[in-house]
TrEMBL record:
<feature type="domain" description="Acyl-CoA oxidase/dehydrogenase middle">
    <location>
        <begin position="138"/>
        <end position="233"/>
    </location>
</feature>
<dbReference type="GO" id="GO:0050660">
    <property type="term" value="F:flavin adenine dinucleotide binding"/>
</dbReference>
<dbReference type="InterPro" id="IPR046373">
    <property type="entry name" value="Acyl-CoA_Oxase/DH_mid-dom_sf"/>
</dbReference>
<dbReference type="InterPro" id="IPR037069">
    <property type="entry name" value="AcylCoA_DH/ox_N_sf"/>
</dbReference>
<protein>
    <submittedName>
        <fullName>Acyl-CoA dehydrogenase</fullName>
    </submittedName>
</protein>
<dbReference type="Pfam" id="PF02770">
    <property type="entry name" value="Acyl-CoA_dh_M"/>
</dbReference>
<keyword id="KW-0560">Oxidoreductase</keyword>
<feature type="domain" description="Acyl-CoA dehydrogenase/oxidase C-terminal">
    <location>
        <begin position="250"/>
        <end position="401"/>
    </location>
</feature>
<keyword id="KW-0274">FAD</keyword>
<dbReference type="InterPro" id="IPR036250">
    <property type="entry name" value="AcylCo_DH-like_C"/>
</dbReference>
<comment type="similarity">
    <text>Belongs to the acyl-CoA dehydrogenase family.</text>
</comment>
<dbReference type="GO" id="GO:0003995">
    <property type="term" value="F:acyl-CoA dehydrogenase activity"/>
</dbReference>
<keyword id="KW-0285">Flavoprotein</keyword>
<feature type="region of interest" description="Disordered">
    <location>
        <begin position="59"/>
        <end position="83"/>
    </location>
</feature>
<dbReference type="InterPro" id="IPR009100">
    <property type="entry name" value="AcylCoA_DH/oxidase_NM_dom_sf"/>
</dbReference>
<dbReference type="InterPro" id="IPR006091">
    <property type="entry name" value="Acyl-CoA_Oxase/DH_mid-dom"/>
</dbReference>
<dbReference type="InterPro" id="IPR009075">
    <property type="entry name" value="AcylCo_DH/oxidase_C"/>
</dbReference>
Length: 409
């Protein structure tokens, strides 16, 4: 018998995140949508709260962005799920989902919960986890010369004594201006190809790091998206994540592993936006006298109700796929296929549901009287960053057909 209920412990933290979304995010959602690049000062209170909790040992900083929990905690959770465990990935996923239901742009601006935190949690050594436990890390992969083809990194890292010297330009870095640290992908030896791509933790105050400019965007306007320059940027030798050895056999599986943690998280953000749009649409349809029935076949219902049921089924599928991918990560099961499946399905569902909700709500949906049009704009990025819809489908196809990236491009 499959039990799809969340365990009690996870329900409590999801409820907490939902409360933050309802009481802090929703009331300021439109304000920061209209004030792009303005810093959401309301988030400072949250930062102070998270720091306070971390100092008191009640909560781990960065944990909500794909943290790694120690075995004793996992064992405690294990009893709740008959031998299976839910750890940092699952609770991060639920937090991301609930806070994105509130506002995904603000969610991406929550201190200490950057995508770089998930990357650190995925590949850092225990010593690094301690050192980078209390940081807010963004993730810098994309460069002017590439987006989807992450093997095309041209930023370089050269060892000079006890320091790495980084040179290159990173574009579209989410929280690139506000985060305290940036996880940067760079090549330690371009002649060795993709195997030489490693990730490095660059502190904000590292000499040679600067913000060139911020982007104006269609949606997630509360989130800062920065262009970063690394000009002879110096960082300590042990800020490289994972092994510094270049293993040509293994390719760049090391850095790619970070996506196994971050893709389910982005999927959850899309699920959160989809749920917000469905709830708003249900209220609008109910007001208009459209009944949504779970006892009558969709074909015998109002066309809008039939559409609603189809969207809700897509939403459920996306939700369950993202839970599965995070659960696998927590249980140390290889999840690249499932992470991409969840991201592909949720990314598409987020845009499909939010735009269809605008359509079904008509003029009200298109106007600023509700947040539907905003969610329609916000959702598209979740189908683009951390790998586009098409790239996820490509990865799924490769995995299922047993093809390499050279065989199926
Ligand atoms: C608001 C925002 C925030 C971002 N945040 C970050 C961040 O924090 N860190 C970071 O590193 N990057 C970030 N990015 C960059 C993002 O990850 C890239 O935009 C994304 O990976 C796509 O790359 P691209 O834009 O160069 O598109 P391209 O790779 O040029 O792709 C263009 C189109 O072609 C399709 N395509 C490409 N290759 C294939 C293929 N082989 N088969 C089929 N279709 C294909 C793509 O799916 C897409 O539809 C962000 C971008 C935006 C807009």
């Amino acid at each position: 018998m499959i039990n799809l209920e969340l365990p009690k412990k996870l329900r409590a933290s999801a409820n907490q995140a939902h409360q933050v979304a309802t009481e802090i995010f929703r009331p300021i959602s439109r304000k920061y949508d209209l004030a792009e690049h303005e810093y959401p000062v309301e988030l400072d209170t949250m930062a102070a709260m998270v720091e306070g909790l971390a100092d008191s040992g009640t909560q781990k900083i960065g944990g909500a962005a794909g943290g790694r929990e120690d075995d004793s905690e996992s064992d405690a959770h294990a009893t709740e799920l008959l031998g299976n465990s839910n750890g940092g990935n699952m609770s991060a996923l639920l937090n991301a989902l609930e806070t994105s239901w509130g506002d995904v742009g603000l969610m991406l601006s929550i201190p200490y919960q950057g995508l770089g935190n998930a990357a650190i949690a995925a590949v850092a050594t225990d010593e690094q986890l301690k050192r980078f436990g209390k940081v807010w890390a963004s993730m810098a992969i994309t460069e002017p010369s590439f987006g989807s083809d992450s093997a095309a990194v041209t930023t370089t890292a050269v060892l000079d004594g006890d320091e790495w010297v980084l040179n290159g330009e990173k574009i579209f870095v989410t929280a690139g201006q506000r985060s305290t640290h940036i996880v940067v992908w760079a090549s330690v030896d371009k002649s060795l190809g993709r195997a030489a791509i490693k990730s490095f933790v660059v502190p904000r105050d590292a000499p040679g790091l600067s913000v060139a400019r911020l982007e104006h965007k269609l949606g997630i306007k509360a989130s800062d998206t920065a262009v970063l320059l690394l000009q002879d940027c110096r960082i300590p030798k042990d800020n490289i994540l994972g092994s510094p050895e270049v293993n040509v056999e293994k390719g760049f599986a090391g850095v790619m592993q970070t996506f196994d943690n971050t893709r389910p998280l982005v999927a959850a953000m899309a699920v959160g936006v989809a749920r917000a749009a469905l709830e708003e649409l249900r209220a609008i349809l109910t007001d208009a006298g459209v009944e949504i029935s779970y006892d009558t076949p969709p074909n015998n219902q109002h066309a809008a109700a039939a559409e609603f049921l189809r969207m809700e089924a897509d939403y459920e599928a996306a939700y369950l796929l993202s839970l599965r991918a995070a659960w696998m990560a927590d249980n140390k099961k290889p999840n690249s296929l499932e992470a991409s499946m969840s991201k592909a399905k949720a990314g598409r569902t987020g845009t499909d549901v939010s735009l269809k909700a605008v359509e079904l709500a008509g003029a009200i949906g298109y106007s600023q009287r509700t947040l539907l049009e905003k969610w329609g704009r916000d959702s598209k990025i979740l189908d683009i960053f951390e790998g586009t819809q098409q790239i996820q489908q490509l990865i799924v196809a490769r995995r299922i057909l047993g093809k390499t990236s050279a065989e199926l491009k």
